[in-house]
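User: Quick one: structure for sequence A, then sequence B.

Assistant: Sequence A:
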Amino acid sequence: MCGIAGVISSAPLVLDRGMVGRVMRLIAHRGPDAAGWFAWSQGQQSSGGPPEEPRQPVNVVLLHTRLSIIDTSAAGCQPMQTVDGRYVIVLNGEIYNYVELREQLGRLGHRFHSRSDTEVLLTAFAHWGPGCLERLVGMFAFAVLDTRDKTVFLARDYFGIKPLYVASTPGGLVFASEIGALLELGQLPRTVDAARLFAYLRYGITDHGDGSLFAEVQQVPAGGCTVIDIDHTGPPEFRCYWQPGGRPRAELSLDEATRRVRDLFLDSVRLHLRSDVPVGSALSGGIDSSAVRSWCCTRSASCRRTRRSRKSAGWMWSSTPLTRPRTRYTCPLRS
């Protein structure tokens, strides 16, 4: 989990003193390992990290706080820019099939300077444009600044696992991983949408598509994306790039269907285990989490169980009766 945020303004904007620092502190819990920003206006750019802040008037500012999972070195830090300087990305999430995409892009002539999935996504976007989305396996919310075409591209994963909120401001737009940071960044009113509040209190409905409980706040819908023209910002128009589609019915026997589901499940878990740090799993006791953890431990010789360990990189509670002491499990895994 990382934190991203950004400002897009048609006219060069001077940010309030301390604004970048305040917003980064609001999303610091999402990314405690590193933080950085990138500022761009026509003809100039700058980058840095706390406590530094952009000094010049800007059209775009991208903010990122990092939780290091893939390539924990400084080479994986964000915001990340292509070698030619055209594209800049901030990403929250993980691209699980980055290894395969990296090999494919390598065969197309691209060279990489880190081992991070972020660089793979940035290179994929530079090569395929928004069409790269259909090639991704992962959970993600990201923004890409195109300094040549003067656009910012926002996208969210197929099921909306990673959050991405947006709001229009006078002369521009702001976005962030969390509403609190968004409200601070855009200096937005805290007006509640009465109809959505009623739907929540009466029916427990929290999913409002591209809306939220705040009248001024939208979210990029699951499987959605949008392109913001920096010179002519306006309310975002979301496009659905993916939705579940029906497939012809497969004529499989029960045994064949069982093997097919098992193969898909094991391959999915294999991709999820890619990490440069120890991995932990959370066990609720249901058939799904039990199956995931069972396969994790099958793949790892170092899977272990510990009691009440506060030093473990990963842990989970067992769903045991209250009469038994609760146990934490840790499972440092390597893919």
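Sequence B:
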Amino acid sequence: MQVKLDYNMKRENTMALRGLAAVVVSMRCVYLSVSERMVRLQHENQLLKTQSSSSENSQLLQSMLDDANTHKHELECQVRYCVSRRLLLQCLLSFPVSVELVHC
């Protein structure tokens, strides 16, 4: 009876760890995607700055730059959230607990 309980606990822990590992992998993909977007937006910002010499387009370019900076800020917030979430999941992977304790 004890062997069966130990086997079931190991099986549940293994399944929980696999699920957490899948979440970590998907979060890494999100982090890389956000990082790529940030690099692209920074490049677009540089292009906008070099093109802003024309006085006719300066207001339009400024609004586009403001929009890009707002979007960049949102992406940075997403990156911070993903990093904190990844750290939490790494802690959970380092210290596996039974499924009942996770739901408390």
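The mean pLDDT is 78. The helical segments are 2-51, 58-94, 99-102.

User: Thanks, that's what I needed.
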